[in-house]
Amino acid sequence: MAEAPARKSVRKSVHLVNNALAADCLGENWNARTTPLPAVLKQWHGFFTGDPVKDHDIANVVFISVILALDVSWSVANKYATDALASLLFTAFFYVSLIYFIADALWIAVVPKSCKTPGVVIGHHVVVIFYMSIPFFYPEYGWCMAACLSVETCTVLLIVKRLYPHRMLEAAFYTAWVVIRLIYYPYLCWAFFQIWVEVGPWHLVIFAPIFQVLLTCLSYFWTYTLVVNMLRRRKKP
C-alpha cells in the first residue's frame, strides 16, 4: 500500500511535465482537460521551428533532396554501372520514395496546418503511391518513376525560395515548373500511352497514362492557381 502514493506522485509529475511541454508547443491557452488529442494536433505550432509550415517545409527539402539524389544516381547507374549496383540503387530509390509519400501524407493528415491544401496534397500522394506499384511489379519501368519524380525538383525550389527569397531561386523555380510540369509531364502522358499500346490493354501499365494524365491536370490546376495568386498580388496597392 505504501507504493500507491509514490506511483501517484510519479504519474502526477509525468502529467505536469507533459502539460508543460504541450503548453510550450501549443501556447498558454492550451488546456489539458478540455482539449482532446485531435484538437491538440490542430493547434500544433511546430516542433522544430515553432511554425508547422516551416517544419514541414524543412522536412520536405531534406527528404526530397535525398530522393532526387537517388533518382539521378540510379538513372546514371542504370546506363553505365553494373546491374547489381543499379538494382541496389533502385531498391533504395523506390523504398525511400515510398516511405516519404506515406509519411508525408500521414504528417499532413495529422497536422493539416502544415500546408495550404492538405486534401489536394494527400490525394496527390495517394495517386503516386498507387502509381509506384508499376515499377514495383515491373522494374523495367523504373525509368518511368524516375522521370515522374523529377518534378520534385519544383517542390524543393518552391520551398527553398519561400524560406530564402531570391531572384535566382525565383527564376530557377519558374523555369523548372514550366519545363517539367507544363512540357515534360504532358510528353510523359503520350510516352506512357505508347508503352501501354505496346504491352497490351490488360497490363498493369494501363494505369501509367491514366495516373500521368491526372498528375498533369493537377500540375495545370496548380499553375492556374499560381498565376491567379500572382495577379492578385499585383493588383494590391
TrEMBL record:
Keyword Transmembrane helix attributed: yes
Subcellular location(s) per record: Membrane
Regions that span the bilayer: 58-76, 88-110, 117-134, 140-160, 172-196, 202-227
Keywords in alphabetical order: Membrane, Transmembrane, Transmembrane helix
GO cellular component: membrane
Alphabetized Pfam families for the sequence: TRAM_LAG1_CLN8
Membrane topology: Multi-pass membrane protein
InterPro entries membership: TLC-dom
UniProt-recorded name of the protein: TLC domain-containing protein
Phylogenetic lineage: Eukaryota, Sar, Alveolata, Dinophyceae, Noctilucales
